[in-house]
Each structure stands twice: as structure tokens, then as C-alpha cells.
């Protein structure tokens, strides 16, 4: 070039350089090891000795080549382990000599150089190319295995939340008609959804019920179908719920995601064999890792499709999870999956698949070529890393954008302050339609058929006759030192519990004429000669109350209450006790005696302000005189609907009972009633005394009493 020798080695394929305004082309040149040739214009003859010093020249071609068009070329052999002086080779057709062939013309020279008869070709693929195909193979195998597992698992996408986190699923307006269910009550606590089918085995367009809910309502009527819900639950008729509830958009979303998964599985298997065949040099579209044009196009295109496909599935999953779907049925007209389900392992696999496919795509794009002599430069490697980072960022941006589009980052809608979250939470069934919590006979065939009952004998030294086992142990800490909070206050006419010498059959009080409720035990304070027991009180808030009478006050507590909110106190107290679902279990595991407790204190009302206490609402009084002599045991709910023949199924729960009777002013009670009327929930049904249950028989009373504190 520019009058200087040009050195051609074994890696050289095509070179162009000018000479006097024209081009000299060497389109092909192959040499063996250690062979190098110099091709130069004749004008550079003077430089030959300077570049290739040697003693003694050698005429490579021999003879005296003729002059042609004043154009001459110099071919210099400088390989083979020695340096040789140059001899002139003129234009025309010089005679051929073993190992060398040269053809010159007026403008071009085609030079093919061989040494001997044996050719040596470069074999094996270079490490960056091998790495690119290895990455492709590993990613393809991983995608094929993991996507296959996602398709096979009926809980791979989502699973129901714990019951304590589940809101009501059915339409609130049908609650009074008997339709009041959470998702776990309808589908089972372990229900989940996979990409191909749900945990029952039904696909997106299948249902055990044989028809949609809308069709059943059309054929049988709304109330008949509501009555049949327990039977449908028992036979798994609600599954697959998306199809049964006619949530068409949700079904289509699920089928779309399924289609992408099937395509990904197929392409992953294809690319697994493609890259494996390339690595062992059996791929007809590659040679030593070098692609044909078609081979490279296929590889790059397939990995691009997989990258984009996984990203679409990730965005589709976010949209499906957080969108609110309309369903064509009256029971569950709308549903938001995120309110009832948690992600399982399928969605993280989709994210991993997306970024892994991006890595394989970038490797194929930047680290492979159709050029056999291709060696990726540092710049190309940096470009590959940058491209992968850009792809990851774009994937994250796309996912966040979709989440924002479906309102994932919006502030939650304000809670209607006029809606009581505890209303109607009193349970009637443990399982669908079983009426578990209805009162039942205490004995069957001479055998106790229920758990321990209350109110019991709490006299010092008393032990019940029912073995409470090892589990059923009462709470012995004060409730305010636990997770329980007071959810109600109410009282009974007379005492339901029995404490000998404090409130028992020998107690005294007013005549009781005109009482409409059953009277329980009484305290021994009453003295008709003492005006504080007989002077009437002007009741402003409490109803049907009597000075001198004995009342047992109960403060139900619960860990499932709306503690610390304006809805904490509820009437009936069952709504407060069971306000938050999933906290109290009657089985698996039984925890009612740990999460539900009642405080009990017995008073005789006097018209004397020296006995005033300003806040009976918050719980029983505990000071140097009150709450000192206590009994704790496990029992049940009370009330006159139960006795020793008919028992409560709301058991076992902890009772903490003050054994002593106390005097308290009528104004203290009236103040409590005033505070009850100020509560958010209507507590008017508890502003009067309820009747007292008869004292529980020994064989229905637990033997786990814990005595004086």
C-alpha cells in the first residue's frame, strides 16, 4: 500500500489497496502454517532489500517473464522459516512452479499460495461462541423443565389467602337471604389455580357443576340456588370458579397465558436440541459454531420471541391479578383476584424465564456470526452486557407500567364509615349448612355430647366433673395483657355463676315482682332497712333496672374483635367476638379458649354515690378490693336458651370470674349505659338485664379451674 510491501498471512481473505489510482484485488489467499508472502508494485523494488534482507536471491518462478503494459508486480516469499530476496515477476503468465501460482494482468492480480499438497484448516469453535451456545442450551433446558412444571401443578399460579385475610366474597346484598361466604368457605382452604388447571383438575373452561351459575339461577331461581350452595360446595361443583361464575374476561386471560406457556414449552424444546446439536457439531445450520445465514436468523428470532413472550405473560399476570373482573351472575358480580389469592411460584418463574431468554437472545445476537473467522471484540462484549441491562430495565418498566395501569399503586378506596365490618359475623355453621353452632342436647345415650359449659360453680376448692384434657387450659393473664380486647358489655338478672357465701341460693334482694327474665343467684348485701338498697334511682339510659338487685356483668373479649376501632363494641356480642375471620378456629387447630374470653363480676346496685365507678364500659374493676379473688376455667356462652338439658356449642372459651360480690352505685351503671348508646354500633338490645342460665351441672363443668390469683 502506497509503495510499501503488503504482508498476507493465513487469516487474510480479501485485501484491496491502490496503486497509481487503480485497485489491486486479492480475493482469496490460503497459506499453510509459517507461510507469508509480500505482494508489491515493481516501483518498490528498491525497498525490497530493506524490508527482506537476505543473501542470495531466488527466482520464485524462473525464466525471464515478459514486460506487459508497464505494469509489474513483485511477489516475495518471506515464510517457511527463512527470509528470501525478491526477484522481479512481470506481467503476463509466468511459468508455474510447485507450490506457487501467480497471474497478473493490467490492473488485477489473483494470488493463490499453497505449500505442499496438504491443507490445514482451523477446527473447533472459539470460547465466546461456545459460551453463547452453552447459555442457549442451559436456558432452553431450564425453561422446558420449569414451564412444564408450572403447567402440571394446579396451584402454580395462585392460592387462597389465609382465612384471616379473606374478605366476604359473595354479594353483601344477599346476606339476609343466607348467602354469606368467603372464598375459602366456597372453595376450601387449600384451593389454588394453575396455568393449565386448578387444584381440582378442572381447566379454565370446565366445571364440575356441568353448567354456569347464571344458568342454574335462570332454571331454578335465586333462593333455591342459595339453599343448595352447601351441597354444591360439598361436591366441588364450584370449580373451576372462573367458568362457573361466568367471568368471561378472566377465563380469556387465563387461556391466553396458557397459550403463551405452551408456545414457550415447544420453542424451548426445539432450542434445546438446536444448541446441543451445535455444540457437538451436528447442526446442519452451523459449522464449528459458525452459523449459516438461516441458522443465525432462526436462533436470534426464536430467542427474541421467547423474551417478548415471557414479558407479555409477566404483564398479563400483573393485569389479571390486580384488575377487577365483572362476572355474569348475581352471587359474585365482581372479583379482584389479589383480594382473595396470593401468588405462588409460577409468577417468579415467568420473570426468571423472561430475563433468561433475554440473556440467550443477547448472546446469540452479539457472540455468534456467519463469519468463520469471527472473534467477538471487547466492544461487542460490552454491547452485549449493555443490551441485556437495557432489556431488564425495559421489562421492569413494562411491568410497573401495567401495575400502575390497573391501579396497584393507587390509594385504597376510603372505607365507608357507616358500614359495620362486624355486622352479621355471628357464625351459624362450621361447615357449609351444617348448623354447627345451634344449641344441641347435652347428653346422647347417656354420654356427654358437648364440650364444657358455663356459668359454673366458682366456689373455692370446686372442681368440675368433665375432663378438659391437656389442651383446654384457661387464659390466666389479664386480657389487656394479651391480644384480646373487650367487644361488648351486658349483664344478667342475678348471678349465673355460683360462689358460696357471696352469690348463691341464700342471697337476698327486692321482691322481684314483674320481672320478665329468669332471676339467678343473689348477693347477701341487701337490707331493706338501709335506704341505699331501697331508694329508687332515676334511670336515664339503662332500662328495667332495680336498686338493691344483684346483676352479673359480662365483658366478652376476643382476639378477632375490631380492637381499637370505632366498631370495637358490638351487639350482639357474637358479632364482635367473630368480627375478623380466620382468627378463631373450632378445630385444626382448636384455639377458641385462647382467643375468646369473658370477664365476669357480680354487683348489688345501691343508690349511693360513694360506690361510683366512672368506666364500667372498659372491663371489670380491678383494684385492692375488686378482682382479687378470681377463678379461671373454660366453659361456653350462657343465657336462658341453655340449661343442663340443652347446651351451647360456642365452647370452649376462657372465663375469668370474680368470686366476690361488690356494691356499685346505680349512677355507675347508668353511666355505662350512656357510653353504650354512644358506640358506633347500636347496643340498645343490651341496655337491660338478660335472664340467667341455671348453674351448670357438675358433669358439664370442666375440671381445669385455676384458683386465687
Description:
This protein has 15 helices and 27 strands. The strands form ten sheets. Strands 19, 20, 23, 24, 25 and 27 form a six-stranded mixed beta sheet that branches. The longest helix has 32 residues, at 248-279. It starts with 5 loop residues before the first strand and ends in a 32-residue tail after the last helix. It is α+β, with helices and mostly antiparallel strands.
Beta strand count: 27
Number of DSSP helices? 15
What's the overall geometry?
elongated
Rg (C-alpha, Å): 46 Å
Question: Regarding quaternary structure, how should these chains be classified?
Answer: single chain
Q: Describe the sheet with the most strands.
A: 6 strands, mixed
First and last CA, distance: 108 Å
Which residue ranges are poorly predicted, with pLDDT under 50 across at least 5 consecutive positions?
A: 1-122
Q: Helicity level, as a percent range?
A: 25-40%
**In terms of structural class, how would the helical and strand content be classed?**
alpha+beta
Strand fraction: 15-25%
Kindly state the mean pLDDT as a whole number? 84
Question: TL;DR of this structure?
Answer:
The chain has 15 helices and 27 strands.
In terms of topology, how is this protein built?
Layout: E1 6-8, E2 15-19, E3 22-26, E4 37-41, H1 45-51, E5 72-77, E6 89-90, E7 100-104, E8 109-113, H2 127-152, E9 158-160, H3 183-187, E10 192-193, H4 213-220, H5 222-234, H6 241-244, H7 248-279, E11 286-287, E12 290-291, H8 293-322, E13 324-326, E14 334-336, H9 337-340, E15 341-343, H10 346-367, H11 378-405, E16 440-441, E17 443-444, E18 447-448, E19 485-486, E20 490-493, E21 503-504, E22 522-523, H12 531-534, E23 550-558, H13 573-577, H14 592-595, E24 596-606, E25 630-635, E26 646-647, E27 653-665, H15 666-677
Parallel strand pairs: 24-27
Antiparallel strand pairs: 1-4, 2-3, 4-5, 5-6, 7-8, 9-10, 9-15, 11-12, 13-14, 16-26, 17-18, 19-23, 20-23, 21-22, 23-24, 25-27
Helix pairs in contact: 2-7, 2-10, 4-5, 7-8, 8-10, 8-11, 10-11
